[in-house]
Prior knowledge:
Blueprint: H1 5-30, H2 33-73, H3 77-97, H4 107-115, H5 127-137, H6 145-162, H7 167-186, H8 189-200, H9 206-226, H10 246-275, H11 281-298, H12 307-313, H13 334-357, H14 365-385, H15 393-409, H16 412-422, H17 429-446, H18 454-457, H19 467-472, E1 488-489, H20 494-503, E2 508-512, E3 518-523, H21 524-532, E4 551-553, H22 558-568, E5 572-577, E6 580-586, H23 587-601
Helix pairs in contact: 2-3, 2-5, 2-6, 2-7, 2-9, 3-5, 3-11, 5-6, 6-7, 7-8, 7-9, 8-9, 8-16, 10-13, 10-14, 10-15, 10-17, 11-13, 12-14, 13-14, 14-15, 15-16, 15-17, 16-17, 20-21
Amino acid sequence: xxxxxxxxxxxxxxxxxxxxxxxxxxxxxxxxxxxxxxxxxxxxxxxxxxxxxxxxxxxxxxxxxxxxxxxxxxxxxxxxxxxxxxxxxxxxxxxxxxxxxxxxxxxxxxxxxxxxxxxxxxxxxxxxxxxxxxxxxxxxxxxxxxxxxxxxxxxxxxxxxxxxxxxxxxxxxxxxxxxxxxxxxxxxxxxxxxxxxxxxxxxxxxxxxxxxxxxxxxxxxxxxxxxxxxxxxxxxxxxxxxxxxxxxxxxxxxxxxxxxxxxxxxxxxxxxxxxxxxxxxxxxxxxxxxxxxxxxxxxxxxxxxxxxxxxxxxxxxxxxxxxxxxxxxxxxxxxxxxxxxxxxxxxxxxxxxxxxxxxxxxxxxxxxxxxxxxxxxxxxxxxxxxxxxxxxxxxxxxxxxxxxxxxxxxxxxxxxxxxxxxxxxxxxxxxxxxxxxxxxxxxxxxxxxxxxxxxxxxxxxxxxxxxxxxxxxxxxxxxxxxxxxxxxxxxxxxxxxxxxxxxxxxxxxxxxxxxxxxxxxxxxxxxxxxxxxxxxxxxxxxxxxxxxxxxxxxxxxxxxxxxxxxxxxxxxxxxxxxxxxxxxxxxxxxxxxxxxxxxxxxxx
Length: 604
C-alpha cells in the first residue's frame, strides 16, 4: 500500500531510529565501558544542545514579533496580551496532554538522583520544551534555563535506561545532559560543568569530571555551529577591574545578599498566593496572567527572559530601555531612568511569582540575572549621579548578575565562571570573587536552603550540601521496620519482663494497651539489678520501671528519624501506624544501609 507523505516521513524516522539504536547497541558490545560512556556523553550533549536551540529560537522569534508590533502601536499593548495567551496555552497543554501536571524546578533532578536511582520520566524530554517555550517565549517573566536543565537531565537519564546502564552511569549521563544544556544556553562550557557538580550532583570523583566536560564542550560546539550569537546573552566590551572601586564592589555584594533574601521570599509568597487563589486552573491562569500583563504594561522589560534589556543596560546608551514605555518622553532624564530600572528590579520578583503561580513554566535563573544586572546598574548609577566617584556602570551591571546568582542558588563558582565566560574574559575576576562570596555568605546565613530547593529541602526529599545527610536521605525508614521482638501489656507482671530479658537478646520491651497503642517501654538497663536479686521481683510495681517512649509515625521521613536518633541518643525507635504498634527501627540497620549506599552514592 502506498504511503502518504506524512506516514512516509514517520516510517523513515522510525527506521532511522531503529538503525541508530542498533548501531549503538553494537558499539556498546565492542567498546569498553569507559569508551562507551565517552561516546554517550557526546550524544547526550548534542541532544541537549539541540533542545536549547529550539527553546531559544522560539523565545527570540516571539520577542522580535512583539517588538515589531510595539513599534507599530507605540504602546506596549501586545507585550501585555501575549503573556496571557502563553500562560493559558501552557495550562491547556498541561491539563489536556500531560496528565494535568508537570514537574517544575531543578530540584526535580535532585529528587531523581536521591530517590529514583537517576530515573526521569520520558515526558520530561519534550514537556519542558513545549510548556516553557510557550510561557517564556510569549512573555512570561521567567527563564528557560531550569527547563533546559531538566530536559538535558531527562535526555541523559532516558538514554541510559534505553541502553541498560547502571545507576552510576545513569546519574553521570543525567549530569552530562544538565551541563550541556547550560553550556549551550550561555556558550559557557566551564559554567555548565560547575552548574552540574555544584547544584545537581554534589559528590563526584575526578574521573567523573571528564564525561561532564566532554558533554559541556559538545553543547557549546553545537550551539556555536547553529545558533546565532545575538540570541545568546554575551558581552563584547573589554571590562577591566580598578582596585580603587573595591569598596563599592563590597557594597554591591552586601546589597545583593539582602536582595536575594527579598527575591526568594517574595517570589515564594507571590507564587503561593496565586497558586491557591482558585481551584479552577483557567480562572487562576487568567487572574495571575492578567496581573502580570499590568506589570508588563508599566515595565515592558519584564517581558520574557529580559536578556535584551540587560544588553541595553551594559551598552553606551542605556536610556534606550525607556523606548516604547509610558516614560518614553523622559528618555533623556537619567533620574527617571534610574527609578525605572530600580522599580523593574523590585517588580521582577512579583512578575516571576505571578508567572509560575498562575500555571506557567520556567525557571529563576534568568530572573536572577535580570535583577542582578539591574541592581548593579542602580548602585553604580546612584554613586555616579551623586558625584561620589566616576564608577564604571557596565562593570557593576555585569558583576551584579554573579552576586545574585551566587546568593539565590548558593552556587558561587557557577556564578563567577558564568559571568567570566559570557563577558569573554577574566578581567573582572577579582570583583566577581568579592561580590559572589559576600552575597552567598549573607544569603546563606538568612536562608539555609537555596531558592530552588527551599520548599522541599526540609522534608528530606533532596540532596543538600551535607553529604552524610544526603546518603542517609536515600534510605527509606519503612524498609527497616522490624517486628521480631516480644511485647507486653499492663496486665503482665515484673516477672514476665525478667523472663523475656533472661531468655532472649532483647534490650527493650514495648508496653501496649488493649488497642495496641504504645504506652511505654521497659529498657534492659532499668531491670538489670533485678536479675541479680530475684526475691525483689514481686515487690516492684510495673509502672516503676516503664519509661516514656519515643514513638515515630510510619509516615515520618528519614530526616525525622535521624533527628530523633541524634537528639534522644537512642539505639532504637518504636514505630506506630494509625496509632497501633507495628515494630521498631534500629539505628544499626540505618548505619548498615548508610555504609552500603556510600559506595553507590559516589559517582566515578
